[in-house]
Amino acid sequence: MTDLDFFLFPCLKDNYGCLVHDPKSGQTVSIDAPEAAPILAALNEKGWTLSHVFITHHHADHTAGIGALKAETGCKVVGPTAEAQRIEGLDKTVAEGDALSFAGHDVVVLDTPGHTLGHISYWFKDAATAFVGDTLFAMGCGRVFEGTNPMMWQSLQKLKQLPAETTLYCGHEYTLANAAFALTIEPNNQVLQDRALEVKRLREAGQPTVPTTLAIEIETNPFLRETSTDIRKQLAMTYASDVDVFSEIRERKNKA
Ligand SMILES: [Zn+2]
Question: 5-255 — its CATH code?
Fold first, then answer.
């Protein structure tokens, strides 16, 4: 394990910002930059100084704060190579297989395209924590805006291979709606039913439902459960391929 500190806070309408702080070096990285003001306020609240920003994908609600954060703090901004032309202010670009570290901690870059073509995720391996942006949500997955359903399925398969105890931070608070949808796909999943109630309680108390863990997602997230016999029965797709079942669930969510 590791001594990194994580601080999650809301941005914009339903985005999350998150700071990762290394007490030894004093370095702090912001995962994505939805808007500068709440990120600067979070830094101020914690007494941390921003050294880096790691960007998951080019959408404005993940990048709009870059300019102001750089001007204010002189931080270095890292983002996906495949979206370098679409993101202003990148100092370094990375793709899967590239070495990246933060304050001496290895950060594994995973290509997780589908929501956008160049979307990447950041796995802080020794902290057992991954930032998956808009690829995987608590009980959901990102809309497939630029890629294809099979591409998104591949990306989720990759995240599913991480150790089950991995803590996952995602880009949005969509969990309540995701839980309601998940129950239409797998109404008899007891773990899902229990989690849906817990999520409702948390949201009513104004609490975040993020981060999550891969272990609980594997048990409750329909987009990671395309092999489930119950789900296949529910969808009348008992003998369909995994990717076809996934695609059907994604299409149903698009219409939900
Ligand atoms: Zn997005």
Answer: 3.60.15.10
